Amino acid sequence: MEWWTGVLTAEDYEVGRQIVQRGVAAVYLIAFLSAVAQFPALLGEKGLMPVPVFLERAGKRAGPSLFHRHYSDRLLLTVAWAGAAVSALLVLGLPQAGPPWVPLVAFLTIWWLYTSIVNVGQTFYGFGWESLLLEAGFIVAFLGSEEVAPPFLVLLMIRWLVFRLEFGAGMIKMRGDRSWRDLTALYYHHETQPMPNPASRFFHLLPKPLHRIEVAGNHVTQLAVPFLLFTPQPVAGFAALVMIITQGWLVLSGNFAWLNTLTIILAFGAVPDAFYEAVFPALDMSGAYTPTPLWFTVVVVLAMLLLAYLSWPSLVNLFARRQLMNASFNRWHLGNAYGAFGSVTQARYEVIVEGTLDDVGPGAQWREYEFKGKPGDPSRMPRQFAPYHLRLDWMMWFLALGSDGGWFTPFLVRLLRADPLILKLLRKNPFDGARPRYVRARIFLYRFATREEKRQTGLWWIREPQGMLVHPASLRAEVP
User: How many whole angstroms separate alpha carbon 95 and alpha carbon 288?
Assistant: First the structure.
């Protein structure tokens, strides 16, 4: 065995490599299927924010994308389905069974395809977990195949990514909102988070002293434990397990797309095979690897040096007075800054969209449009959608906070036209495909029903009207 093979390889991380490679590929599969289902309606040729219009205005400033030369919904679907197919092969482990260049090419392919989508996705793709998925896919591309031992530098770069995720989130909380510092953030967070899940109300109604303990534990996990990822085993492995458990707690309590799921997957890259063998004594991971080709080692070293260079701005950002949250410092979304919920809203406002077939007046019958994930009908239990990402529902949460982004007026126009693409993104169309004469948007204050209120009324939410966001509006001229 050559000396560089012993230094740059980590033979006791095979299970971790399998989890990371297949897990990241599974998230890519979900992301591509999400694009198939939602992109044309939101950003397609006839979408709310059409990509051709955006590219004409932004040009190369939009970032690298194969859509610069031409965009069509057919091409978008071809890209998304191709990405989904390659991702599915990686989930099954087929490319990993060949030489190391095969999974390298496969992961770089889906990374490039998804980069092309994200860079034209505008506000609907302006989430931190999009950049996280891109960076994770690029790094994991260099983990090699089952023929060779896992490259140590790649595993180290995965730990650095998890560190930035956790420590960045911890720092943004301490700097951003007093409620994180006085340990009261969870008095509100489960109720006011963008998209509660079935267990969110249970977590919200836990005793307040327990909420304070949760916040304190979160600070330890995000501000202290991440440094242990760079210590020798078994300490690094136990640090990763702590993060996996706390991220699992977040998965149970809310819908945050694939943010928490992907963090869990990446954290397994720091758990050595010895941990699994201790739990399952019959498990024997001592396999015979072929010597790592020199070319692959050179490629890995150069790629990781590039990532280290690109990570410098994010390292500076961690300790900057004005820390950026979920920021990309280059157009390839590599070496990003991360963080979530630097501030916590203490009241939940919801925008409820309604339509009517009648003339506006006291006798008009207004009917609600129901969304798949966001709160609407107070009697409806919140649903679990993560790691799938309901982009329109998330944007409705930002809308209630006062951030439009330029998509809401086109959305109302599409409802007036009974656009089938948009209506497919909703849970319920109250007009069975007919065009409403008017639509409006009202603001409500929502809170979880107490245990007593739930027993008496069966409601999950108690809501109170707060006013009108958009007064009744109609199309001035019917468009065929």
Answer: 19
